[in-house]
Design brief:
- By secondary structure, the protein is of the alpha+beta class.
- The chain has 3 domains: 1-60, no CATH class; 131-235, no CATH class; 239-288.
- Helix content is 25%, strand content 26%.
- It has helices spanning 64-80, 104-118, 238-246, 258-288, and strands at residues 9-14, 20-25, 28-33, 39-44, 56-59, 131-137, 140-145, 149-151, 160-163, 170-171, 173-178, 188-196, 205-208, 218-220, 231-232.
- Strands 6-7-12-11 form a 4-stranded antiparallel β-sheet, with no helix packed on it.
- The chain is globular and about 80 Å long.
- GO terms for molecular function: sialate O-acetylesterase activity.
- InterPro entries: Ig-like_fold, SIAE.
């Protein structure tokens, strides 16, 4: 956002592709739609100097996962553009439902890692695990990271979902790449995550930690313990998901009202029932064959 006396006010940000965004400042309001690269920008008319405070509101989808995605994507975009003086820290893995960090010490420690590494030349990692490549092969998605990543609790990796071209997501089984598959004892490549689901024979898209207070447990394997951030490689907005699951557009193009959201939730529950029934059948078949 740029505000200068007697000049038009430019406000920009990121949202889901095709998502409608409305910006209001005082009595002025402008709406736009996020581009395919998720960026949006509006220009409000110049406003006179006033002693009265003004409140700016940006209205889009009230979804924590989109907010975290925009937060992280903005950092990546600025860093890629050459801004070497920008840091980043997230705290969604601390699992507090509100946006403002209620557990502050770990957040401060993560920010301190950035300062120690970039300003004081300490050999310490401050970046979360970075996604370098996504490729599909043999009914699986392979996510290549720039460092090893492990579960917080040393159990199975959780928090991933995958979808085919139709955009219908299902929870994914996630494990490291076994470099010795079929040849004996596993040899795990902990910087490559392999995603699969029997319900998604040809996966194309993935999502990770895609909820306001998500199920997730992937972190860097070093002592930094930095979480793999909320991210995805699909272009679908909430309105797109409504179209995918309901087979029709929302009441207002690009925006879901409460009734639309309720319909989408019920449709998602019905879709998830398919997974639960499939898992139940598999369990029963395994029991019968023992």
């Amino acid at each position: 956002m740029v505000i200068q006396r007697d000049k038009p006010i430019q406000i920009w940000g990121w949202a889901a592709p095709n998502e409608k965004v409305t910006v209001t400042l005082g009595d002025e309001s402008r709406s736009t739609t996020a581009a395919s690269d998720r960026s949006w920008k509006v220009e409000l008319p110049a406003m006179p100097v006033s002693a009265e405070s003004q409140t700016i509101t940006v209205q889009g989808s009230d979804e924590g996962n989109y907010i975290r995605e925009v937060h992280y994507q903005m950092f990546l975009n600025l860093r890629e553009a050459g801004d070497n003086n920008i840091g980043y820290a997230s705290c969604f893995d601390l699992h507090r439902a509100w946006y403002h960090p209620q557990i502050k010490v770990p957040v401060g420690e993560r920010i301190a890692k950035w300062a120690l590494a970039t300003q004081y030349s300490k050999n310490i990692r401050w970046l979360p695990p970075q996604l370098q490549e996504v490729r599909a092969n043999d009914g699986k998605l392979f996510l290549k990271l720039d460092t090893w990543a492990i579960p917080f609790n040393d159990g199975p990796i959780v928090g991933f979902a995958i979808a085919g071209k139709d955009g219908r997501f299902q929870p994914a089984q996630a494990q490291w790449l076994d470099k010795n598959a079929g040849k004996g004892e596993p040899s795990w490549e902990r910087s490559t995550i392999v995603l699969s689901s029997v319900l998604i024979p040809e996966p194309v898209y993935f999502r990770y930690a895609w909820a306001r207070n998500p199920l997730e447990n992937l972190k860097s394997s070093d002592n930094a313990g930095l979480p793999f951030d909320t991210q995805r490689n699909d272009p679908f907005s909430l309105a797109d998901m409504y179209q995918i699951y309901l087979g029709k557009g929302p009441s207002t193009p690009g925006v879901l009202n409460n009734g639309d959201k309720s319909e989408l939730i019920q449709s998602l529950k019905a879709e998830d029932l398919k997974r639960r029934l499939d898992e139940a059948r598999t369990l029963l078949n395994n029991q019968e064959n023992q």
